[in-house]
Write a structure and sequence with these properties.
By secondary structure, the protein is of the alpha+beta class. The chain has 4 helices and 18 strands. The strands form 6 sheets. The protein has a 4-stranded antiparallel beta sheet with strand order 1-2-3-4, with helices on one face. The protein has a 4-stranded antiparallel beta sheet with strand order 10-11-12-13, covered by helices on one side.
């Protein structure tokens, strides 16, 4: 069929291509019509239904209960976030996940929230309080706590201290930011990028004004 597309200058190519399309569609319809329910085996995932506690399975663009009389289902994607099995397990067990990152449709901006099952067993967003995303004490004022304000920045609850979560195109994990807050520096890591996109390895530490600077490998 790909060859026929390249041969559309031939008078017979278009006719042959359409005939092949019709034959393909007819074959698919016949297959679906004749398929028995027991032939349609969908893969199960390692998570149970929070309603009836049967296994969940993949079904197209969603996860659904394996029990035919149960209508519980979850979308595979929600607000730009693809659900992991571990997050589905958290929803099944605790009815909510930890803090996740989502994307706004109108601006592609990132934001943090939890996923929660409401009383109707439908997904909804739950926005965390600052204390739920705290990473450690502020190294500047020593009074406030530093929390994740959004996927781009962490700020202090008491002063103007800020630490950005991406440095030279390298995303810093919460664990590394916690190390920075606790000790003032982190050891050498790989993956920082220059403007020309070449990569380099370096450590990070706070300067006297609590801005970050690179430390080179010894």
């Amino acid at each position: 069929m790909e060859q026929l597309l390249n041969d559309f200058t031939s008078p017979d190519a278009t006719k042959q291509y359409l005939q092949d399309i019709h034959r393909l569609i007819a074959g698919n319809i016949q297959y679906c019509t004749e398929m028995k329910p027991e032939d349609r085996v969908l893969p199960k995932i390692d998570a149970s239904c929070p309603v009836c506690h049967e296994d969940l399975m993949e079904a197209g663009f969603r996860y659904q209960c394996t029990l035919s009389t149960c209508d519980f289902a979850l979308p595979k994607q929600y607000a730009g976030h693809t659900l992991k099995v571990s997050e589905i397990q958290a929803l099944s067990t605790h009815r909510e996940t930890g803090v996740l990152t989502f994307t706004k449709k109108d601006s592609n901006k990132k934001y943090n929230a939890k996923l929660r099952l409401n009383d109707a067993n439908r997904l909804e967003l739950a926005f965390p309080a600052p204390e739920e995303t705290q990473l450690g004490y502020c190294p500047k004022c020593r009074k406030g706590r530093v929390y994740v304000k959004n996927p781009s920045v962490c700020v202090c609850t008491e002063c103007d201290f800020v630490v950005y979560r991406t440095i030279a195109q390298k995303a810093l994990t919460d664990k590394r930011i916690q190390t920075l807050l606790r000790s003032g520096s982190i050891p050498v890591i790989k993956g920082f990028k220059k403007k020309d996109q070449s990569t380099f390895a370096a450590g990070l530490k706070f300067k006297d004004d609590f801005k970050l600077e690179f430390t080179r490998p010894s």
